[in-house]
């Protein structure tokens, strides 16, 4: 594989580049500068104003580079999106072009399936393929058996048990993060994400960065790349924003809970609430013991949240539209010769 392919560039699916430019991958986004990885190494470049339209550049994005200027952002294959809590419905792309999202939970206590399902829904929404990673396997009597149980409960996702202490499972996980593939980790605090990143990198992160550099304004800033090369040739995105949980959209929820979604689609009534309705395939599955009540509850909760979120952004969209129309009316009133 050449250097670009190792960075995740796929010649067969490559977008067209503007004349005289070369592709480079964003490793870090700072206020005024981008740290990019290109076939000839890493450097800091300036983003052209065009890059700041839309959601702006994100770690993992490909840009077209002309000299030290990133002239355009290339189309994304996948995007891990976060909706800024509370402040409008502004979407922020936390990481782009991920192939794999590692959904991390720990084996130190009981695996919290509902929480894992939440993360899975978010991961599916991004367009990447999730893999569940159960850390702290050394704290579990029979990690392989537990991993198998979790895989059975989650349906359709691979589950790998690992330990940063004994290093068991690390090779199996590394094998999934092969050359040119890009992965990122999500999961709650304390489950061992940092330890796992260090174990996968084979050296503590602090040893690879931060690097003191002088930025365009001559000020000293501490920078650390957030797109890391793994010893096996894969890439690992580790951004602070990536670790916070975003809310999944309907599509992601339907993939994470494909069994429930399929059942719901088989109910007699299209708007079935799956409670007391006749011909409800969901309650029938609960009664037959083929669907877990907790899993149904998790699905309901996520659906309700996604619905509330959609309503919120609709309200915002409506308010914006009203403001636009009001401004238009005001502008018309201030015109002396307006037509009646
Ligand atoms: N026994 C055991 N402990 C682990 C393992 N991995 C991590 N730990 C411990 O779990 C605790 C949390 O690990 P971190 O790697 O900091 O967890 P994190 O998910 O990065 O947490 P945040 O930084 O808060 O997001 C630390 O005390 C680690 O030493 C493991 O494989 N086995
Ligand atoms: Zn139903």
From TrEMBL:
UniProt subcellular location: Cytoplasm
Binding positions for Zn(2+) per the UniProt entry: 267, 272, 274, 280
The CP-type G domain, residue ranges: 87-245
A Pfam family reported for this protein in Swiss-Prot or TrEMBL: RsgA_GTPase
Cofactor(s) in the UniProt record: Zn(2+)
Enzyme class label: hydrolase
Gene Ontology cellular-component annotations: cytoplasm
Domain EngC GTPase: 96-243
One GO process term, biological-process aspect: ribosomal small subunit biogenesis
Major localisation: cytoplasm
Any one GO molecular-function label of the UniProt entry: metal ion binding
Cofactor note: Binds 1 zinc ion per subunit.
EC number: 3.6.1.-
Keywords attached to this entry: Cytoplasm, GTP-binding, Hydrolase, Metal-binding, Nucleotide-binding, Ribosome biogenesis, RNA-binding, rRNA-binding, Zinc
Classification via NCBIfam families: ribosome small subunit-dependent GTPase A
Designated name of the protein: Small ribosomal subunit biogenesis GTPase RsgA
Organism field: Trujillonella endophytica
Record lineage: Bacteria, Bacillati, Actinomycetota, Actinomycetes, Geodermatophilales
């Amino acid at each position: 594989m050449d250097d670009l392919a190792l960075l995740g560039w796929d010649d067969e699916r490559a977008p067209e580049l503007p004349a005289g430019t070369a592709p480079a991958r964003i490793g870090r986004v700072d206020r005024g500068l981008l740290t990019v990885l290109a076939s000839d190494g890493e450097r800091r470049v300036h983003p052209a104003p065009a890059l700041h339209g839309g959601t702006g550049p994100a770690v993992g994005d490909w840009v077209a580079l002309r000299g030290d200027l990133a002239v355009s952002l290339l189309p994304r294959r996948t995007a891990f999106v976060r909706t800024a809590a509370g402040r409008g419905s502004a979407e922020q792309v936390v990481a782009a072009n991920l192939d794999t999202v590692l959904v991390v939970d720990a084996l130190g206590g009981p695996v919290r399936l509902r929480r894992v399902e939440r993360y899975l829904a978010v991961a599916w929404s991004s367009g990447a393929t999730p893999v569940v990673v159960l850390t702290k396997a050394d704290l579990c009597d029979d990690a392989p058996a537990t991993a198998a149980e979790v895989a059975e409960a989650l349906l359709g996702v691979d589950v790998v048990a690992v330990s940063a202490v004994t290093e068991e499972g690390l090779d199996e996980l590394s094998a999934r993060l092969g050359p040119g593939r890009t992965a990122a980790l999500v999961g709650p605090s304390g489950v061992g994400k940092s330890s796992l990143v260090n174990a996968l990198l084979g050296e503590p992160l602090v040893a690879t960065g931060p690097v003191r550099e002088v930025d365009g304004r001559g000020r000293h800033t501490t920078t650390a790349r957030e797109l890391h090369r793994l010893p096996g040739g894969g890439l690992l995105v580790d951004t602070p924003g990536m670790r916070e949980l975003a809310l999944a959209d309907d599509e992601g929820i339907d993939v994470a809970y494909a069994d429930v979604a399929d059942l719901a689609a088989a109910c007699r009534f299209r708007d079935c609430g799956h409670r007391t309705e006749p011909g409800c395939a969901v309650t029938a599955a609960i009664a037959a013991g083929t669907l877990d009540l907790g899993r149904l509850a998790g699905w309901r909760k996520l659906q309700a949240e996604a619905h509330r979120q959609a309503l919120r952004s609709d309200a915002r969209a409506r308010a914006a539209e009203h403001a636009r129309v009001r401004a238009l009316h005001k502008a018309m009133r201030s015109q002396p010769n307006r037509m009646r």
